[in-house]
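Q: My collaborator sent me two sequences in one message, no labels, and asked for predicted structures for both. Can we handle them in order? The first one she listed is below.
A: Yes, handling them in the order given. First sequence, followed by its structure tokens:
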Amino acid sequence: MEVVHDAVELPGIPEPESKRGRQLRFRWSLLLPSVFVALLWVIELVQVFLEDRFTFLGIIPRTVDGLLGIITGPLIHAGYEHLLSNTLPLLIVGTGLIYFYRQIAFRVLAMIWLFTGFWVWLSARQEAHIGASGLIYGLVCFLFFSGLLRKDTRLMAVSMLVTFLYGSLVWGILPVDQSISWESHAFGSVAGIFCAIYYRKEGPQRPKAQWEIDEELEKNSPQSENELEKVLIESAENENEPGRGEGQSMAEPGDGSIVPTAPAMNIRYMYKENSDGAAEKAKE
């Protein structure tokens, strides 16, 4: 059985300068991708030590045994060169995902992993598909489209950086080299775009401008300024009408019965005379 792998070569990015809090956050964001990459290297060294390839753990489409590959396929690589080409991209996009989208990072990772694997199992060529670059394609597409959909300048800058570094990945989804699992690349990209749309309202959001906040407050307020002013004027007029005093007033309809009306609103005005020694007075 022919083994197809999905290698990609991506450049790295330097660590940005930041304050101590951001440095700690960056280090924690780098930790988990580093542990995952270390696991991949341990698996590769075990294969070398045993002088065997664990290709049976890859995704073998439309077979019962191949279902296990949905979970294990991204962990298996075809050799040092294959794993080296995926190591740096995994560190970069994995760190970017956790750093900028820590609230939804693991859900996005799980969806891309499982969706890509299942779609490859369902419709790819009848070969053993191994390697983690389908996962890389998914994370790259998620970072790019998620930044655009959220319209956040910081996240859009990440999208532009992803485009600059990984724009050439688009050629990996074309069936040019049959030794590479282009199906994993294509389905991983689709899964990443789906996650970007599905989680567009979760995680980091664009800060609202002051005018947007003011509009929401005005829309949600029970009464506008004009309505409040109208209520105050009507209350003052009702107070000055004869027969209206404190408490509840009574209205007499044409049949002679007495019907209670709404209580009048009393407004108290406080003022102070300009003359020296004048005391404060209250008029009710």
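Q: And the one she listed second?
A: Here it is, processed independently of the first:
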Amino acid sequence: MANQDLDERTLNPPPSGDGDIETAHEEDTTPVAELEGGRVEELDPETRARRDAALRQVRKLGDPVLRASALGVERFDDVLQSEIERMGELMEDALGIGLAATQIGILHRVLVYRADPEDPLTALVNPVLEWSSEETETASEGCLSIPFVHVEVERPAEVRVRARDGRGEELEVQASGLAARVIQHEIDHLDGVLILDRISRVQRKEAMRAMREAQEAAIAGNGSDRPVPDSEAHSGASEESPGQGEGDSHADEAVPDASSGGWE
């Protein structure tokens, strides 16, 4: 699909403010964020505000765009460069380590990631998974689009991906460990696949229950109807087919109503 203006390529913008299910603590609470690898760090007010603003632009579970298959990019121009820069900034501000274009409502096969803080931001346009190892690793994954949920996901330990960069130059990325996991997670997003599809139905129900309980606890702890934001955590992955659990995983995708603390 040829690039157009961002507004034309972006679906309806997500709700902001109190309607978002990932909003800030009240000012008198201690802000914390669970980061990749299970680290927990306090956030200063400026970092927290930047993170909350970024999270309000990330589509959440239940938004149909997260189940859409992204379209290949055909035009490599300044508009695409701006899109990649915006994704990188949102990912960094949200304290994530990966982000797919569909997570911000853009149906382009574009992802960005930075698995190691010392590495430069990497953008993969039209990524194709060419090879994955027989060796697998299982580790906890979370997602900016699914707050409060972390599940154990099995994935190949190493992958080779063919893609293009933002200028259209061909890339071949050989990745292992965390980088391989992040790349696979984000390619899943581009195919409309979520981490909930890579676990059993029983595990999926448990994850949704945990999400609801965390939502309710956050509301009660804040003394308001504004829940605590969650961060995207990827750590550690045989590639299993989407929807491997029993039944239809999409049926469980109710979204917390931040304005009432209930469920839609």
